[in-house]
Amino acid sequence: MLVCIGVVVGFCFDVAAQTKIAVIGKSGDEFYAQAFTGCAQFAATQKDLECFFDGPIDFQDPRQQVRAVQNMLDRKVDGLLIAAVDSKHLVEKVLKLAQLLDIPVMTFDSDLLPEHQEYRLAYVGTNNFDFGMALGNYAKRYKKEGVNEICIQSGSETTPNLNERVRGVRHALSGGDGYSRVNGENGWVELDRCPFFTSGQNSRALVQLKYVLSETDAIFLAVAGFAQFSKDYISEMMPFQKDIMSGKKVVISADAGTTQLEALQQGLSTVNIGQQPFEMGRYAAQLLYQYIKTGQRPKHEMNYLGYYYCKLGQHPLCTEARP
């Protein structure tokens, strides 16, 4: 018997399966759908496992994410894979309860803060500080003499993985610890109105990007896909195509989803640095299932996956080699 569920985004699962793992994304975009697909592929190799997906759609709302987790707890799932929007909110509202119910949690993409990590077994995903450094180092390719302005776009001030990426970007540019805005170090200055925060709303992210390209000469650097996940990205960005392709305008973005690569191929992005969401979901599910079945904890608390670079005119379009 199949049952379909979901607070905002839902998938069907087989109620006959003995073990059920829920994948809780930060939003319903392609990145988290790929993570769910990875979980589902691993489940297909096991006779008694089913994966299903829930979470906010197109809006990284911590309250919606908590409701999604609570829904899964109410349905007595055996384990949770979570990309954290707000670490403290998750722990206080649902993860303490999950621990009391003896329901194990793995994080992927976005880990809990260090002070909350007792509420999860392990993390699978990108080393977000290093990933931020990779984004920042790529921006340095376009540094000119004098003062160079940059605008960083992030999701929320409370999202752990994105904060680490912003810190990595700032460290790459300034050489400092990355906790403070870049203000003249090594010839870099953050635009006054930045960083921009999108709350995971792709339409808002696109408006912010267009403002930077239209009104400033700043390099635009997004630490997640944001605007490029918008269905309107290609049509809205066409007026900037010539300047992006010539290097007059620079758009650096994390992630390399299908829609993002379509935009890149049309000259509407300078570079995309991609992650491995499918493998995050697959490997995290494998480790969680192993724990549920045997009690064996993951060998490593931090399980880092690599990232890769995608650039127009490069063959192949994407390569794992460092630029």
What does this structure look like?
The protein is an alpha/beta fold. The protein has two domains: 2-127 and 276-306, Rossmann fold; 128-275 and 310-319, Rossmann fold, CATH 3.40.50.2300. Helices cover 37% and strands 20% of the residues. The chain has ten helices and 16 strands. It has helices at residues 30-43, 62-74, 87-100, 128-139, 160-174, 202-215, 233-237, 241-246, 258-265, 277-294; strands spanning 2-4, 12-14, 19-24, 49-54, 79-82, 105-108, 123-126, 148-154, 188-190, 196-197, 219-222, 251-254, 271-274, 302-305, 308-310, 318-319. The strands form three sheets. Strands 8, 9, 10, 11, 12, 13, 15 and 16 form an eight-stranded mixed beta sheet that branches. Strands 4-3-5-6-7-14 form a six-stranded parallel beta sheet, with helices on both faces. The radius of gyration is 20 Å and the shape is globular. The N and C termini lie far apart (50 Å).
List strands and helices in order, with pairings.
Blueprint: E1 2-4, E2 12-14, E3 19-24, H1 30-43, E4 49-54, H2 62-74, E5 79-82, H3 87-100, E6 105-108, E7 123-126, H4 128-139, E8 148-154, H5 160-174, E9 188-190, E10 196-197, H6 202-215, E11 219-222, H7 233-237, H8 241-246, E12 251-254, H9 258-265, E13 271-274, H10 277-294, E14 302-305, E15 308-310, E16 318-319
Helix pairs in contact: 1-10, 2-3, 4-5
